[in-house]
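ARCHIVE CARD
Drawer: 12
Card no.: 0347
Subject: one protein chain, sequence and derived structure
Cross-reference: see card 0346
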Amino acid sequence: MQNSTSFFQRPWIYGLLLPITFVLGIVSGYLIWGSTPPATAIAATPATPATPPVQIKRYDVPADDDPSLGPDNAPITIIEFSDYQCSFCKKWQDEVLDRLLANYPSQVRFVYRDFPLISIHPGAAPAAEAANCAGEQDTYWPFHKALFSMKYDLTTAAYQQYAAELRLDTQAFTECLESRRYQAEVMGDYQFATNLGIRSTPTFFINGIPIVGAQPYEVFKQIIDKELAGEIP
């Protein structure tokens, strides 16, 4: 990571971003990086013609070896730090992700990284480990969606039930769960996000540009379109 200083410790970033209407999703409601994202973005006052170009700060956030959807060479990479016990993460998953992937099939790569809010969501880290265990049987994304369906509680019995419904080798899956094989992987993502300064979920990086909260599709679309057009400094 090129910058060890947390972006939460850079007060100038807020003034830097305010003049840009399409980046309102970055700051609206989350100007102080709060815990409850807004339901919708609010229109910002456009910059006057005299306003000098604003240089957006991008952060070096690698995809690591985490699960992804979309082509590896896509011009846009969206990295989400998320939590399976977070209702706003579920909201974004349900309302935005599939729509983005459908409308930008060759332009967007989506990467999911774990950021279980351990202090308030005790089931999030085990759920993330379970998803990685399902990934051993090439079923990460179906299991991921099953977890966000919240059909069952986040318990070992629930993970085994999902595994059975997805026709996994349940014996191998259970062995993976019990061995805590992916504990270090999940906590590695968590530690990286914590060191970067992330405090809440979901948090996104679009080609390194930070977006916080379950922002609506339109916010992501505006940023993606401008990034594809080369309009973001």
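Annotation on reverse: The first helix runs from residue 12 to 17. Residues 19 and 103 are 28 Å apart (CA to CA).
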